[in-house]
Amino acid sequence: MASLPHSAIYGISRASLSRSSYFARSTLSITAKATFKSDASQNLAAVAVPEDHQPTPTPSNETVLERALKASGPRNTWTREEIQEIYETPLMDLVYHASTVHRKFHDPSKIQLCTLLSIKTGGCTEDCSYCAQSSRHKTGLKASKLVTLGSVLRAAREARDNGSTRFCMGAAWRDMHGRKSGLRDIKEMITEVRGMGMEVCVTLGMVTDAQARELKDAGLTAYNHNVDTSREFYPSVITTRTYDERLNTISNVDQAGLSVCSGGILGLGEAKEDHIGLLYTLSTLPSHPESVPINTLVPIPGTPLGDNKPIEFKSVLRTIATARIVMPKSVIRLAAGRITLDDEKQGLCFMAGANAVFTGEKMLTTDCSGWDEDKRLLDSWGLSPMKSFEKDNSNPTMAAEEQEEKPSALFGTERSFDSVSKI
């Protein structure tokens, strides 16, 4: 699944940021540049800090977690060591603190419901080790052409009528090079689904800046392009596309004014250091993804990872809780593999900060929890679906308090992609 055109994994969603507010931060008095290097930290420029906005020294006995709990906004100057310290917090404490952060920045009673449709299945030239749609793996999946507009609208109406407010479309392509007719047809799909009052997200592989802007003009809400895992482990999973190519697509999407949806996959055979590395990449992007899908591998017979054993749930829960703390305003989405979690495990994930799910008949080509099942699940936990474009779900009291405080240079600034050199 090039950017994620595969059956086992997909994650999407993010409400569009205001371009004016996003780029207002670029007027700070210092501008620094960095180029994409072998480490994710070198993908980013240094934060510019005005003279009257210097961070106050923190007490020497204050932990990383204690400082994170005091944050008034996102921070993208995390180090691997800081994220590791949070990740290794005793699990019960970690979930408790993640829940506290979640309640500070989101309405804990709301869950975003999204539905995903494969609009072009199979035949992808990428070699992603987990993907049923790769033409390099013998999974028995037959390649198909782009679906019709009518079939998309029927699926979108069914999803909307069942409570989904974001409709996601995935195509098994490496990129959009030479796909003018395909891009034209997809833009029409986007416009029509957006006209139904739904948020719209797509994952089409790598896109240029110009293509991202075309999609934005058609009404697209968000673009999904997962980084999948840590930079270090990535070559063990995919060889046909580099980590920096993924980051470059994310940059193009962000520059076009689209919401970025980017997350990863757990259970690929990675170690806990790779969970930390994944979160390090995402949390040190110039601006945190609006949506962070946490997928767990659905082993597909015929793929190189088809015999992998399921990842331990505790690792999934730790990753979700840490993601919530280091990316406090992002939507954390339970994506592929959720169908293997019972109600109690899903409830723990919601408590730890997950606030979105995929629901419906399929996750591209694998099974998904159905609408009726999820209605029962949400009702049993006292949760309700978000509305379309309902991105500011923070606690009103907390929000009012934050308006009275100046954001600190450490926790209230985000870098702009303008200061990151292109690959």
Which key features would you list for this structure?
12% strand; 10-stranded parallel β-sheet; metal-binding; iron; alpha/beta; 423 residues; two-stranded antiparallel sheet; transferase; biotin synthase; TIM Barrel; 12 strands; S-adenosyl-L-methionine
Structure write-up:
This protein has 423 residues and is an alpha/beta fold. The protein has a domain at 105-398: Aldolase class I (TIM Barrel, Alpha-Beta Barrel). The protein contains 13 helices and 12 strands. The strands form 2 sheets. Strands 1, 2, 3, 4, 5, 6, 7, 8, 9 and 12 form a 10-stranded parallel beta sheet that branches. Strands 10-11 form a two-stranded antiparallel sheet. α3 (80-87) crosses α9 (272-283) and α5 runs parallel beside α6 (180-194). The longest helix has 15 residues, at 91-105. The model is unreliable at 1-56 and 396-423 (pLDDT under 50).
Question: How far is the first residue's CA from the last residue's CA?
Answer: 22 Å
Question: How many E strands?
Answer: 12
By oligomeric state, this entry counts as single chain
Instruction: State the CATH architecture of the domain at 105-398.
Output: Alpha-Beta Barrel
Mean pLDDT: 83
- State the fourth-level CATH superfamily of the domain at 105-398: Aldolase class I
Uncertain residue ranges: 1-56, 396-423
Question: What kind of sheet is the major sheet?
Answer: 10 strands, parallel
How many helical stretches?
13
Query: Roughly what fraction of the amino acids lie in strands?
Result: 5-15%
InterPro entries: Aldolase_TIM, BATS_dom, Biotin_synth/BioAB, Biotin_synthase, Elp3/MiaA/NifB-like_rSAM, rSAM, rSAM_sf
Domain Radical SAM core: 109-338
Protein name: biotin synthase
Cofactor: [2Fe-2S] cluster; [4Fe-4S] cluster
